[in-house]
Specification:
The protein is an all-alpha fold and 424 residues long. The chain is built from 17 helices and two strands. It has a single domain, classed as Up-down Bundle (Growth Hormone, Chain: A). It is globular, with a radius of gyration of 21 Å.
Length: 424
């Protein structure tokens, strides 16, 4: 355990943000470009092929999240960088299989692609948690997947426009980012461990075995279930927007352009980065925890306001997509950056963000798979926009009620802890 000079601490933080942002940004090249294709006219088991391709990859991603509850929680820190590169290599091999294996059987290759990629976030996050500047570091990490989501669709669209087939395009896109991710993985391996000052401010983070994970969950079961439930709903809305952005733009009457996917997400990333990154200035862990829940609430309100303004004809399709993105990513990123981080810092319980995030992510993607399967057989491509907007309304309202339950539980829990402390 060491202390660090403030100037060196900032330099270390800048290095960590750049490394984490770059590594996770590159990962998206192996996950998202295929969604730029339309795969028109192809079906699997009666459902349109694109929906089933997305579902197949997300199913693998979901299984990975459940496995990650154990694997990522128990993986020693010195093995994270190597494990990350192994996962990326397996994902790229699966994309080559997607190009070679005849349709519709190549759908299984996207399941194999999602299986290793689901581990990557936890591996990167493990380098960043438990620090005084964790919110800023994780906000940089989260900005990468907001921005990369649009950029990689632009990369995929550009490759398609250059004449690469829909089935080879994902493997080509991944190959473009193989060398950069090697460099960023090395940078991650050089990040300095948390100092004694970090541990004092945020509590020490260590690997967790099964008994320790179970103990942490049982202690805050009601609050954690409500957070995970809210996160599940946000994950579904955020993932549909990300994976079916071309369909949403078409439903809004917008001509598809490769740059369109990137420009909206840049604005969303900047806004979310500023809001969530500023949480590092709140030193009181309890205050920061409840303020982070408030930002989640604001996000859902912005989501509903964007839909109201669209229905009234007050905003353009571009502003609607930015508003929806900002409204969804505020709560989504808050869970990644602050909610779980400050919960552990506030309670001083033994735990890690990676465990809690994988608990939330596993159920979040399980819900997304269920919605995709339902839409695959019952949905209508012509009314996709209406399907998404109706889902957004319901999920936003339910999430606000769920968040009220989270606030009630942890306010009550904190009050009980205070009473116990005063009676000692």
């Amino acid at each position: 355990m060491t202390t660090t000079h403030p100037r060196k601490e900032l330099a270390n933080a800048a290095w960590a943000i750049f490394a984490a942002f770059g590594a996770y940004f590159c990962m998206y090249a192996f996950r998202k470009p295929f969604t730029s294709g339309s795969y028109t006219g192809l079906t699997i088991l009666g459902a349109d092929m694109k929906t089933m391709l997305v579902t197949s990859q997300v199913f693998g991603y979901m299984v990975s999240k459940f496995l990650g509850i154990k694997v990522v929680s128990e993986l020693p820190p010195h093995r994270r960088a190597v494990a990350l590169l192994v996962m990326i290599g397996l994902a790229e091999l699966a994309l080559v299989g997607f190009a070679i294996v005849p349709a519709p059987w190549n759908c299984l290759c996207l399941f194999l692609n999602g299986l290793p990629l689901g581990m990557v976030f936890g591996l990167v996050l493990g380098f960043l948690e438990g620090r005084k500047l964790t919110e800023a570091l994780t906000a940089g990490l989260c900005a990468s997947f907001i921005l990369a989501d649009g950029v990689m669709k632009s990369v995929g669209t550009s490759l398609l426009q250059a004449g690469v087939s829909e089935f080879w395009m994902p493997a080509f896109a991944g190959a473009l980012f193989m060398i950069p991710i090697l460099g960023f993985s090395w940078m991650l391996s050089r990040i300095q461990p948390p100092t004694s000052q970090d541990m004092e401010a945020r509590a020490e983070r260590t690997t967790l075995n099964h008994v320790e994970r179970k103990s942490l969950f049982q202690k805050y079961a009601v609050g954690l279930v409500l957070i995970v439930f809210t996160y599940l709903l946000v994950t579904i809305l955020r993932s549909i927007r990300a994976d079916f952005m071309p369909e949403l733009w078409k439903g809004l009457g917008q001509t598809i352009d490769a740059k369109l996917f990137t420009t909206t997400e840049i604005l969303v990333a900047i806004g979310v980065l500023v809001v969530q990154g500023s949480m590092v200035f709140i030193r009181n862990n309890r205050a920061a925890f409840f303020i982070s829940l408030a930002t989640c609430l604001i996000g859902f309100i912005l989501l509903m306001l964007s839909l109201v303004c669209w229905n009234l004809g007050k905003i353009t399709p571009y502003l609607l997509m930015v508003g929806l993105g900002f409204g969804l990513y505020l709560p989504y990123v808050a869970v990644h950056t602050t909610v779980f981080e400050r919960l552990l810092a506030m309670t001083r319980d033994k735990g890690t963000i990676t465990y809690l995030m994988y608990l939330a992510d596993s159920f979040g993607y399980l819900g997304y798979v269920a919605v995709m399967l339902l839409r695959g057989w019952l949905g209508n491509q012509e009314h996709f926009k209406d399907f998404y907007f109706a889902l957004s309304w319901w999920f936003a309202i339910i999430s606000i009620v769920s968040l009220a339950g989270v606030v009630w539980f942890f306010a009550r829990t904190g009050h009980q802890h205070s009473n116990k402390a005063s009676s000692v």
